[in-house]
Amino acid sequence: MTHDWTTTPRPRLACLDMAGTTVGDDGLVERAASAALAGQGLDPGTAGHAAALDVVRRTMGQSKITVFREIFDGREEAAVAANAAFESAFTEFVAVGEVTALPGTEQALAELREAGLAVVLTTGFARSTQDAILDALGWRDLIDLALVPGEALRGRPFPDLILHAALRLSIDDVRSIVVAGDSVNDIGSGVRAGAAVVAGVLGGAHDADALAAAGATHLIGSVAELPGLLRQE
C-alpha cells in the first residue's frame, strides 16, 4: 500500500528561539551590541554607531559573528573582537540576573513535551552564552536539545539548526516540525526547513507585518499560546 503523503503528520518537534521568544530581551541584545561597538571605536551618539545598531536590529536572530562581520565589512579582526565583547557583556547580564524567562514559557515547554513533542532551543548566541542562560534559568530538564550556530551549522535564516535538530532527534518528516520565533530570520529558517507550523511571536524583534511577510503561518502573542495553537490545528 502506498503512503498518503498528503496527510500532515502530528507535530513531533518544536524548535523555539531564545531571546525575545522564550527569554526576555528588554533591550539586552542592543545594550550588549552597543558596548561591543564602542569597544571598536563606534561610540554612542555617532552616525557609525547608529548605523551599526540598525544592522543589529535588522539581523535579530542571526549568528552574532555574522552580524558583526556585516557591520565591519570583512574586517575579521574587528568582527571577532566585537563578537567576543558582545558575548561577554550578555553573559554578565545573565550573571547579575537580568535575563529572565518570558511569562508562561516554562509551562508551555512542559505542555509541549507532555503532548509528545521534543523541545529544542536555538539561538544566534555562542555556546557559552546559551549555556549560561540555560543554567541560570534552570532549563536543562525542560528541553531535549539546545543548538547554536557554528559547530558546522550555519545560523539563521538558514535551516541548519532546525534540520540538525530533526536528525539528532530522529524526526523523519519535516512537516512534523513546529518553529516559533520573534524575528524574520527565525521565520525564514522555519520556512526553509519545511516546517508545517512557523509561528511568529509578537512583541519581540520584529512586528506582525514583517513576520507575516517573512512567511509566518501563524501569529501568536507569546510562546505561551503555542500549545493551544497546536491543539486547535
TrEMBL record:
<protein>
    <submittedName>
        <fullName>Phosphonatase-like hydrolase</fullName>
    </submittedName>
</protein>
<dbReference type="InterPro" id="IPR023214">
    <property type="entry name" value="HAD_sf"/>
</dbReference>
<dbReference type="GO" id="GO:0006281">
    <property type="term" value="P:DNA repair"/>
</dbReference>
<dbReference type="InterPro" id="IPR022468">
    <property type="entry name" value="PhnX-like"/>
</dbReference>
<dbReference type="GO" id="GO:0005829">
    <property type="term" value="C:cytosol"/>
</dbReference>
<dbReference type="InterPro" id="IPR036412">
    <property type="entry name" value="HAD-like_sf"/>
</dbReference>
<dbReference type="Pfam" id="PF00702">
    <property type="entry name" value="Hydrolase"/>
</dbReference>
<dbReference type="GO" id="GO:0008967">
    <property type="term" value="F:phosphoglycolate phosphatase activity"/>
</dbReference>
<keyword id="KW-0378">Hydrolase</keyword>
<dbReference type="InterPro" id="IPR050155">
    <property type="entry name" value="HAD-like_hydrolase_sf"/>
</dbReference>
